[in-house]
TrEMBL record:
This is Uncharacterized protein LOC109127033. PANTHER family: OS07G0546750 PROTEIN, OS12G0169200 PROTEIN.
């Protein structure tokens, strides 16, 4: 398993991994077409024509949808995840997410037989957003300004396309022979 460390300079997760014998040093997120072509986002291939491209799109979209569904469950259960988080410290956000995941797993395990009933008893007024919104800061903090500046350095679309192509080749080499 690759060792992951947080780079303060670049404000992105640094890790070392190889895809098709090519080294990469930034973690990436699975994204849909609305995201820019940055090396930290791996998007699906729009209108794939070849079989390898179709297989890559199928795997990327399937994994991304699984992640979105899991996050949707957490958002429905924990209000803190639905609130704006832009001004939070990244370490605090990581602790909050891990805590919510652990609490969710504990709840599911404890209430395995009554889980469906618990879900229908969920507070609908909170889910519909009808509760009184809480005010939040709108001023730009220096830490956030630095974050935006660092993120603007990560706009190398050629590295995004290389990673996407390498992942597509990797998936085809691993799963292509099992296609119908």
């Amino acid at each position: 398993m690759p060792r992951v460390r947080r780079s303060l300079r670049q404000h992105c997760w640094q890790t070392k991994f190889f895809v098709n014998q090519r080294p990469y040093n930034m973690a990436y997120y699975l994204a849909d077409g609305i995201y820019p072509s940055y090396p930290t986002f791996v998007k699906s291939i729009r209108l794939p024509q070849s079989e390898p491209d179709k297989l890559f799109a199928h795997h990327q979209e399937g994994c991304r949808k699984d992640i979105e569904r899991a996050f949707g469950v957490l958002q429905a259960r924990f209000k803190i995840i639905r609130e704006p988080a832009r001004m939070w410290d990244i370490n605090d956000l990581a602790i909050i997410m891990r805590s919510c995941i652990i609490l969710h797993n504990m709840t599911v395990e404890d209430e395995r037989d009554t889980y469906a009933q618990h879900w229908t008893d969920y507070d609908q007024s909170e889910a519909s957003g009808s509760s009184t919104p809480q005010p939040f800061l709108t001023e730009v903090l220096p830490a956030f300004e630095n974050h935006v500046r660092a993120r603007s350095e990560l706009r190398d679309s050629s590295e995004h396309h290389e990673l996407q192509a390498d992942l597509g080749k990797h998936i085809w080499a691993k799963f292509g022979m099992f296609r119908d």
